[in-house]
């Protein structure tokens, strides 16, 4: 029975691998599950997330831009208002995609679908689950970034090849938000608590120098906004969009690297606490 | 025969030495705060045995199951599954386990067959193995014609069978069944028992918790009765009945008013008397002769019934009749 022999070999091999208690190097199983689920159920929801920043860009950039005219971009050059806000909206889009995936989706899977309980009764460890889910959030962020960058190109807002680096930078922004988002979600138990996430995201979107420069605020408010993650994303992408880099650039990148590491750590610790207590 | 391949490889390989004991627990304890959910229990399960954990709600059955699966860490004591400590080697231990949780947690976003394939991927199994295996398990679970259905279109019994099929995807040597048939209709229960019995015949070690005494009598070679985290009794169903109850039980109903006052008049008949709100139970070796004694004392119950003692009598004797919440 040749089929039987290979069957036996595969199960045996899978059993004989060695794992740490947290990680079995199999996040790809979580990822392929997510892709399969997306294909069969919720791709329409994903599409709506792409249009939101595009609508903002068209209404604000084109509409409001007609009144505002051109503004001073990073490095001092004059750019159109649409070109000024487009990178900021891309950062917002990366944030939204990652946060929705890592909060609402994760909340549902954790508390209602009991998906992670099932996963953690297999060879998967909590880190596999966290990495897999976060990768899916990043993939979503990447797709949004690609689509939005294409729209920018069509609208004539891309003037330098540097701008293409906005795509990987968006993924980094998404990474930072996804890790923290999933970690925070693990603490939340009710829908009311989930609303707090929106309560934080909306002001961050409006005030993180998205639509006008930070200099309009008094110093204290500036410090507050500079402490928030989205401002670093907005500034980073804005600099990349015109190819002007300053001493602040590595700080923006560093902010997201630290945020990513902290988010992954928090998520893994929390998943372990929740499911392997 | 498709069932042959479901057999775990170690049990199938006749010449190879199989581990004598697959689960060893010594003074296994789990405390939540000051409350001991599982209080220093010890047991061991040899390979191929069907081992039951019986007990009322909150007795610590599910907690014990979770510790075996390595998804709950123990407070103290020792536990070895296939020679491994589940607290240290969680993923490796779980690679040997199949788990049927109390509540089905199928992946509702995936179709029936995909549920099996994706679950197999969680164990790191290759697709070349999983595809034939999934088809074979669908047949075993009598779900072949539902392969492409959505999970929420399945009946309760079908979902349960799919969950069992899923738990077998990695050819587990130990199957953990947490109340496998709760909420199923009698037809679905009997189909499930039949499937579980086949697995047992193939050498899979079954560990199950249940409230249903008929289920325990059907499926378990040996069982422990747990209450408040402690083991109250241990043995085969027949041994437990012999050790903790009489051979037969006479059930008498005198009407709810008279039940309580009649006890004195029945004194001395049988080995033991138990007065319940709705009936009186006489535990006796010979039920018919006990019933004759009742009649000879001039007592006329409204209804009377002589039956064999069951595991349920043992269970209620050991864990009490009062409601536990």
Account of the protein in words:
The complex is a heterodimer of chains A (277) and B (325). The model of chain A is unreliable at 1-8 (pLDDT under 50). Chain A has helices at residues 2-16, 27-68, 81-111, 115-119, 126-154, 166-185, 191-207, 219-227, 229-242, 248-275; strands at residues 70-72, 78-80. Chain A has 277 residues and is an all-alpha fold. With 325 residues, chain B is α/β, with parallel strands linked by helices. Chain B contains 12 helices and 13 strands. In chain B, helix 4 (112-122) crosses helix 5 (127-140) and helix 9 (237-244) packs across helix 12. The interface between A and B is large, with 43 and 44 residues.
Furnish the topology, listing elements before pairings.
The complex is a heterodimer of chains A (277) and B (325).
Chain A: H1 2-16, H2 27-68, E1 70-72, E2 78-80, H3 81-111, H4 115-119, H5 126-154, H6 166-185, H7 191-207, H8 219-227, H9 229-242, H10 248-275
Antiparallel strand pairs in A: 1-2
Helix pairs in contact in A: 2-3, 2-5, 3-5, 3-6, 3-7, 3-9, 5-6, 5-10, 6-9, 6-10, 9-10
Chain B: H1 9-12, E1 21-32, E2 35-46, E3 50-54, H2 61-68, E4 76-81, H3 90-95, E5 97-100, H4 112-122, H5 127-140, H6 156-167, E6 174-178, H7 186-201, E7 205-210, H8 213-219, E8 222-227, E9 230-235, H9 237-244, E10 248-253, H10 256-266, E11 272-275, E12 280-284, H11 287-296, E13 303-308, H12 311-319
Parallel strand pairs in B: 3-7, 3-8, 5-6, 6-7
Antiparallel strand pairs in B: 1-2, 1-4, 8-9, 10-12, 10-13, 11-12
Helix pairs in contact in B: 4-5, 9-12
Q: Separation of termini of chain A?
A: 43 Å
Q: Please give the alpha-carbon distance between the first and last residues of chain B.
A: 47 Å
Indicate the multimeric state: heterodimer
Mean pLDDT over the residues of chain B: 87
Strand content of chain B: 25-35%
Sequence of strands across the biggest β-sheet of chain A: 1-2
Reported for the largest beta sheet of chain A, the result is: 2 strands, antiparallel
Element order, helices and strands of chain A? HHEEHHHHHHHH
Percent range for β-strand residues of chain A: under 5%
- Helix residue percentage of chain A: over 70%
**Largest chain interface and its two residue counts?**
A-B, 43 and 44 residues
Q: Decide which structural class fits the backbone of chain B.
A: alpha/beta
Order of helices and strands of chain B: HEEEHEHEHHHEHEHEEHEHEEHEH
Mean pLDDT of chain A: 85
Task: Indicate the percent of residues in helices of chain B.
Answer: 25-40%
Shape of chain A: elongated
Poorly predicted runs of 5 or more residues of chain A: 1-8
Number of domains of chain A: 1
Q: What is the helix tally of chain B?
A: 12
Write down how many β-strands of chain A occur, each being a DSSP E stretch of 2 or more residues. Answer: 2
Secondary structure tally, helices of chain A: 10
